[in-house]
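Q: Give me the 3D complex with zinc ion.
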Amino acid sequence: MPALNGKRTSKKSSDRQNKAIRYRAYPTEGQVVLFNKTVGCKRKIWNLILADRKKAWQNERKTIKPTPAQYKDKYPYLKEVDSLALCNAQIDLDQSFSNFFNNPKHFRYPKLKCKRKEHPSYTTNYQAYTKKDGTLSESIHVGNKFIRLPKMGYVKIVKHREVPSEWMNAEIKSATFSRESDGAYYISVLYEFELEAQETDNSVIDIDKVIAFDYKSDGLFCDSNGKVADMPKYFRKSEKKLAKLQRELSRKTRARKNEDPSKNYLKQKKKVGKLHQHIANQRLDHHHKKSKEIANLYDIVFIEDLEMKGIANKKRHLGKSTMDNAWGLFTTLLKYKLEDRGKILIRVDRFFPSSQICSNCGHKQKLSLSERTYKCPSCGTVIDRDHNAAINIRNEGLNVLRSEDKNITFTTAGAAGSHACEDKNKTSVSREPTPADSVHLSVKQ
Ligand SMILES: [Zn+2]
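A: Here is the predicted complex, encoded as structure tokens.
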């Protein structure tokens, strides 16, 4: 099928893809010390280069691009850590600058990094060369129980997963070593690989396998069949617990001037960090399971192209739950899981008034945010607001598909295998038409 407004991509055999596998790591005490040093040096390089660039511009109106190597004489301790980690800090800063210059409205001028706010992690790249005796020397090596990294040596890991066999000609690109707020270490290995081209007939679409989701700020989403996907109870429970821990934290003395934070404060902070991480893990786990379930069941998923930041700001009181649901994360997972299966996620224009239109007759009216039910004055339909919106998103998505490709045939599961291909220009619907079918039935006759 052709690309849809540039938003849809079809898979080619030569496409190289990137995906990471993240392993839990158990560094030794010495490795933890080196990890902290590397993160510190990475921050140092960022701050040094940033300060020098700023100075050069203010004094001489010159853009300079210093490299980490230039600072190693003045700060010899920089030599102790992985030089590629420092190079990546320089590259990140360059990127930060070009983001700012290209789009100053959206990106801020790069800021100095401080230890307290930084997420401790660094990235090192894969490099390989052939030694004189013909053996290959690699900077990153993934073994069964260890990952070898430059300067670090062998770091113990739990290899819960092998590189999938579908990843053809997989090559390591880089590795990112990080520590999460609960104190756990991870090494994420980024691979580049090819996927075998999937021969799918996209000219026949089974409309039973087309679904749309309307984003729900107090849950996760409502689909075009009227089903609501909520966040599970255990997740809500953790949230309540977190609120309690944070209240307790706010009552503890943080630190007076020139003093270290109190022991109780640090203890409580660690507890909060641990629970934060636990909630993030629960959410990720839930989103993985949910998106996998959907990717297995459906061929095409339509979602509204939402600007999440806008929603969180506009509906102030909904802001927190909007962020918590991590709709963005969910759609990212869903997108790649669908694409892995040769299926697609399509974003429908976010200015399409999905909640205002009656999904049954097309009547249009304004609805306030508090109205949870759509009551149509024209045809008398009474339907849940989110369900109505999801049906509209589905209809709009199908309309766009049809206008993109005139040869698309819509069929239902029963007809798919047998005679769907016979009448290319007809829509065969063998079941009772639902409101969702109304639009395409009227178009294709
Ligand atoms: Zn109506």
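A quick observation: Residues 204-229+290-443 form one domain.
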